[in-house]
Structures are given as C-alpha cells and as structure tokens.
Amino acid sequence: xxxxxPRGSEIxxxxxxxxxxxxxxxxxxxxxxxxxxLFHGNEFYYFDNENEPLEVFNKALSRIDQLQKI
Length: 70
Fold this sequence. Notes:
This protein is mainly alpha-helical. It has helices at 20-33, 52-69, and strands spanning 37-40, 44-46. The protein has a two-stranded antiparallel sheet. A hairpin with a 3-residue loop joins strand 1 and strand 2 (44-46). The radius of gyration is 12 Å and the shape is globular.
C-alpha cells in the first residue's frame, strides 16, 4: 500500500500483527486521541512533536497486544 501514499510520506515504524484491520483501527484511534492533525484522507497526520508519532505507535501497539491476549 505504500506506493499509494502521498509523496513525502514517511513510515515511522511497522509491526506484524495477527489482525491488520483491527490493528489499523486501534492505531487511527490513538492518532485521533493525540494532538495530531489530519492532512490527507483519514489516515495521514501531521505531528507537532517529533516524538509523538512513535508515542502514538507504542500506545496503539500496547492496545493491540492486549487485544491479542484475549
């Protein structure tokens, strides 16, 4: 899917998960809970703080891990 991203998009980190659809929903929810601003569609964000994308990712990964343990 990366070749469909807007020019200049940057992949911060990726993780293999069991259920990519649930994982994507969780990640987008975490991004929406942050101070990030949407800039393209509903899944591309601007972050004011350079550490925030990784913080959002780690928060989402924690929630995904909890979901997979159920």
